[in-house]
Amino acid sequence: MRYKRRTSQTTRASRHSDKKYTIQLDLDYLERGGGTLTVTGAPSVEPSPDNLDLVKVVLLGAPAVGKTSIIQQFVWSDFSEEYVPTDRKHTFYPSVIINEHLYEVKITDVPVIPYFPINSYYEWAHYRFYGLRNATAYILVFDLSNVETFQYIRTLRDQMVESRDMRNVPVLVVGNKQDLLCSNTPSAVTGLQQLAMAESACGDSREKRRNIVNLVRKHWKCGYVECSAKYNWRVIAVFKELMEMIDALEWSGGGRSAEPPPDSAAGGSGGTHENRCVVA
């Protein structure tokens, strides 16, 4: 077994409590399809943020795009058909092995935020203890079957680069619910008419997705992954892609220790440096 998970057997309801869980995952091994996740051992002790140099990852996105489902599949290999809006912050502490390097990671799942805080005062006033402005990296999630949800993370990302220095801060854009693509054709329509409607819908969807991919990869210069949390398809790839970005920064001398203060402006001076995610 190349990885292990230390947690307690609990109900889905208790998993949404304030308890913290620690897992150790070899992402390279998992992506190759090795092994299965199993529940073993006793409840773990929450790592102390003061004693660990944590990689702090925050997931953000519009309502019902599947942020919590992505995390639950990654941590527990579990998916719930029932939609329960996230109403408070939940944190997870996996130990991740990537390229034979070990990282202690803090994954934060927060309720939907209407805007990204422009400074520490607004964060303290409205998003206390969310850790939005000092995150090591961000995962921005949208719904592939509802591309309008991309506009939310587009606006959020613009606010991020305007309000904090994004140098050496990896951003990964994730299109979730890949399983729902081209599956919304009305069932009452049959035969050639249904086929024509499906082809038209798929064509429009593909064009919008191409535009999104071009914007994210070519203009934002960010990572991009499509997945399905429901079927656990490419969920490991999401975190592997992000950790690859973080690992590359760490070993190129641009890691967390080299980051400017979180409240440094990302305006004129930020645009003159090489970014992992640059202003378009």
TrEMBL record:
<dbReference type="InterPro" id="IPR001806">
    <property type="entry name" value="Small_GTPase"/>
</dbReference>
<feature type="region of interest" description="Disordered">
    <location>
        <begin position="253"/>
        <end position="280"/>
    </location>
</feature>
<dbReference type="GO" id="GO:0003924">
    <property type="term" value="F:GTPase activity"/>
</dbReference>
<protein>
    <submittedName>
        <fullName>Ras-like protein family member 10B</fullName>
    </submittedName>
</protein>
<dbReference type="InterPro" id="IPR027417">
    <property type="entry name" value="P-loop_NTPase"/>
</dbReference>
<dbReference type="InterPro" id="IPR005225">
    <property type="entry name" value="Small_GTP-bd"/>
</dbReference>
<dbReference type="Pfam" id="PF00071">
    <property type="entry name" value="Ras"/>
</dbReference>
<dbReference type="GO" id="GO:0005525">
    <property type="term" value="F:GTP binding"/>
</dbReference>
<dbReference type="InterPro" id="IPR052661">
    <property type="entry name" value="Ras-like_GTPase_Reg"/>
</dbReference>
